[in-house]
Every structure is written in structure tokens, then in C-alpha cells.
Amino acid sequence: MESGLLLPDLDDEVAAPFWAGTARGELLVQACGACATWRMPPRPMCPRCRSLEHLWVPTDGRGTIWSYVVPHPPLLPAYAELAPYNAIVVALDEEPTIRFVGNLVSEAYGPIHEVDPSTIVIGEPVRVVFAQVDDVTLPRWVRA
Fold first, then answer.
1. Burial call 5-28: b when 16+ CB within 10 Å, e when fewer
2. Nearest to residue 110, comparing CAs of 134, 88, 85?
3. pTM of the predicted model, to two decimals?
4. DSSP conformation class of 113
5. What domains can be seen in the chain, in order of their start residue?
């Protein structure tokens, strides 16, 4: 059964290693092969030194809630059924300029609308968990 959610293209050559990492339960960040600057989202060229060299660095998957929103209808049908839900922005502890967007859940496979948005606190520590949706393994976040 398909979820109807908008999901990434796993065959995108720039981002495919990231999604392969999530499938293994790893949160990876692209880093420049020349100057070692971390960058997310992944892209072909380093914004700092313009090198085309890159590698993928595993992270410890810990961060803090940097921001969040609570979407309400009108939304795409698959999302409207779940609204209201949270979408959080997480700044990684290892490099706070690297941020990920996801959902705060109680456990990896918990529904994205299970956490009461009024309980979300900016600066709250979180850690990554992974949930498979269709053929994509998505990073989600739980309170640390």
C-alpha cells in the first residue's frame, strides 16, 4: 500500500548516498573532499571552495530543535488526513549550521501527529530514529 506522501527520488545521483545511509540506520552529511566543510542538503559543488570532490560523513544523530511549524489544511490529501502535525527543524550538535527537517514522534513508527505541538520546545534535545515509508527510510526525531 502506498502512503501518498511526497517522497524523495532514491535514484537522484547527488542525494542517493544519503538515502542509502538512512536505509542502513545512519544519518549522513555530505562533506567537501577538499576543505572538509559539511553541507546539507547535498549538492555537486562545495559552496565554500567550489570543489567537486565530496564524501559522506556519519553523524551521531543528536541535535536540538531549532524551529518548528504546525501545518493545517488546506494541504495535499495524504497530509490533510494527518493534520495538524509537527514539522521540526533540527540543528545537529556536531555542526549546528547543518539542519534537518522532520517530524517529532514518540517512537520511530509513531504517527507524525502523535506529539502535542504545544509541548514542543525550541532548544529541546532530540535524536534521530528511522522509519520506512513505502521504499524510503525517513529520518524522524524523538526526544533525547
1. eeeeeeeeeebeebbebbeeebbb
2. 85
3. 0.93
4. T
5. 9-58 (no CATH), 61-144 (2.40.50)
What does the block give as the cell for 144?
Answer: 533525547
- Tell me the pLDDT tens digit for each residue of 48-98: 999 999 999 999 999 999 999 999 989 999 999 899 999 999 999 999 999
Angle at 67 (CA atoms; ends 64, 72), nearest 5 degrees: 130
Contacts of 102 by beta carbon, 8 Å cutoff, 6+ apart: 87, 88, 90, 128, 138, 139, 140, 141
Alpha helices in the chain (DSSP H): 16-23, 77-80
How many angstroms from the chain centroid is the CA of residue 125? Answer: 15
Q: Which amino acid is at 137?
A: T
90-122 per-position pLDDT tens digit: 999 999 999 999 999 999 999 999 999 999 999
Using the predicted structure, report yes or no on whether residue 1 has a pLDDT greater than 50: no
